[in-house]
Design brief:
globular, four-stranded antiparallel sheet, about 500 residues, 2 helices
């Protein structure tokens, strides 16, 4: 897995990023981090940046350190600061602060202030000349979505006002004076005011798309704010194909500037700037994604730069088993991915780009209160074996004809663990694939293996390669199968 080669179907394990639970077995609701400056500390350290990591579980806000031996600490007023009932809490970074959207209409919106290490209500200290004391109105406290766009905070997801959005003044996240005495390009604005326009569809997600576009993934449409409304920008409909996006943060961005998101009807879509979405799952695994109940599942997506692919995490809120997916960009292939236990399924995800190689990882906030990471060096799911397998086939010679398999010879990558091979046969490809008792089986070790010459005569066959041993990983180079039909010998290499 760590060779860097485009093998396809790579499956790293996961490991705990912190050894302790955040707040008992409560879901990890949110993970984020702030980067600040750092003083020179030693001639052996660049001292370029300091990380403040923040996570929320059970409504409690805690900070934690990076690397081995990470531990939690409680900032001022962090205990019970946010909603304990929210299945997930979205957040955004603005300079050295983190702003939370927990959808709790019984308390004010809050943010974590790094300079004081406290969790503060947004209206507690409004800047001079703005905020509620000067006639501005903070966004609805029931907002469940928040992002940073053009140095503004943009909020939405208030279930009592689902078409609306609220934008702070530029560089002033506590300034929501929508009608100041002096009109400027940097003032706050709101969707249902005269200088903007309410989105005519329920807003499900906000996506900052560079510094010149804000995408609104709605219930059955997609809209785009180009530029800045207060500076002459506009809002247009990008797609009216009765397709929008799932609620929350069901999207990621690729290094080449494309947006990839989970559709409101299921399916995964690719969207380049100023273009309509294109399906990445149509004709491949579309029906699997269309069967996802978006009221009962949280969908999160992350780009993995090391693996050059996209994770689609689908977590059931009732903590039952679910299937995630990985899209290998280099091989243009989808792979299903099931964690060893449903507790490992992430409620929230976060890309962390620390200084140490082990800290550059996708963090997974689990349903059991632990934060784990996608770990290229791990050969298990937090100590539990990964059951990995692949099917090759069907092996057949044509409709209604029988085939005789006479030989198999495999080359397993150098350094790979052993693999089990099993051959299943049947009267049709479907029957062979559904067979549970193999015609024969065996073990292949690393490097080139001796030819295996046990025969099998059938209309169709499937070859399964697998390994389910904790602490082991495997890679395959090639398999040669010799198949005979009516006096001819056919050699196939896979």
């Amino acid at each position: 897995m760590t060779s860097g080669r485009a093998r396809g179907g790579q499956r790293p394990g996961i490991s705990k990023y912190l050894d302790e639970q955040h707040s008992g077995s409560s879901n990890i609701q949110c993970i984020s981090h702030i980067i600040t400056g750092k003083a020179w500390s030693a001639v052996t350290s660049m001292g370029a940046r300091t990380f403040t990591n923040v996570a929320v579980s059970g409504g409690n806000v805690k900070t934690f350190t990076s690397g081995v031996g990470s531990t939690y600490a409680i900032p001022g007023d962090g205990t019970g600061a946010l909603s304990a009932d929210a299945p997930v809490i979205h957040s955004t970074r603005h300079y050295n602060d983190i702003y939370f959207a927990d959808g709790d209409d019984s308390v004010s919106l809050k943010y974590y202030e790094e300079s004081t290490n406290t969790v503060t209500p947004m209206e507690a200290d409004p800047p001079v000349g703005s905020g509620p004391e000067q006639g501005g109105a903070l966004p609805g406290v029931a907002c469940r979505l928040v992002v940073t766009y053009r140095n503004r905070l943009v909020w939405s997801g208030d279930n009592t006002d689902p078409h609306n959005f609220f934008a702070s003044a530029v560089g002033a996240p506590l300034d929501y004076a929508y009608s100041p005495a002096t009109v400027t390009e940097t003032q706050a604005f709101v969707g249902n005011s005269g200088n903007a326009a309410t989105i005519p569809d329920k807003i499900n997600s906000l996506v900052p798309f560079g510094d010149d576009r804000l995408i609104f993934l709605c219930d059955h449409s997609i809209h785009q704010m180009t530029g800045d409304i207060a500076a002459g920008g506009r809002i247009d409909e990008v797609s009216d194909s009765a397709m929008g996006g799932a609620f929350g943060r069901p999207w990621c961005k690729t290094p080449n500037g494309a947006l990839v998101f989970f559709g409101s009807k299921g399916g995964v879509y690719w969207m380049a700037p100023n273009q309509t979405p294109v399906s990445m799952t149509s004709g491949v695994i579309e029906e699997r994604f269309r069967s996802v109940n978006l009221d009962e599942n949280i969908v999160r997506m992350e780009w993995d730069d090391r693996q050059q692919g996209i994770y689609v995490f689908i977590t059931k809120l009732d903590a039952s088993a679910s299937t995630n997916y990985f899209y290998d960009m280099r091989n243009h292939a989808w792979y299903p991915d099931v964690f060893a236990t449903s507790a490992h399924n992430p409620v929230t995800t976060h890309v962390f780009d620390g200084d140490a190689p082990g800290d550059r990882a996708i963090l997974l906030g689990g349903q059991d209160g632990y934060i784990r990471k996608v770990d290229m060096d791990a050969k298990s799911d937090d100590g539990v074996a990964i059951s990995s397998y692949v099917y090759f086939g069907p092996i057949s010679v044509g409709p209604g004809q029988s085939a005789l398999l006479t030989e198999l010879q495999a080359t397993i990558a150098n350094g790979s663990s052993d693999v089990t091979f099993e051959l299943f046969s049947g009267a049709s490809p479907e029957e062979a694939f559904n067979e549970t008792i193999p015609w024969f089986s065996g073990t292949w070790a690393e490097d080139k293996n001796p030819a295996f010459r046990q025969r099998c005569h059938a209309n169709a066959m499937w070859l399964k390669i697998s390994n389910s041993t904790v602490g082991e990983s495997w890679e395959m180079e090639s398999i040669i199968a010799r198949v005979r039909e009516i006096g001819r010998t056919v050699q196939r290499t896979v």
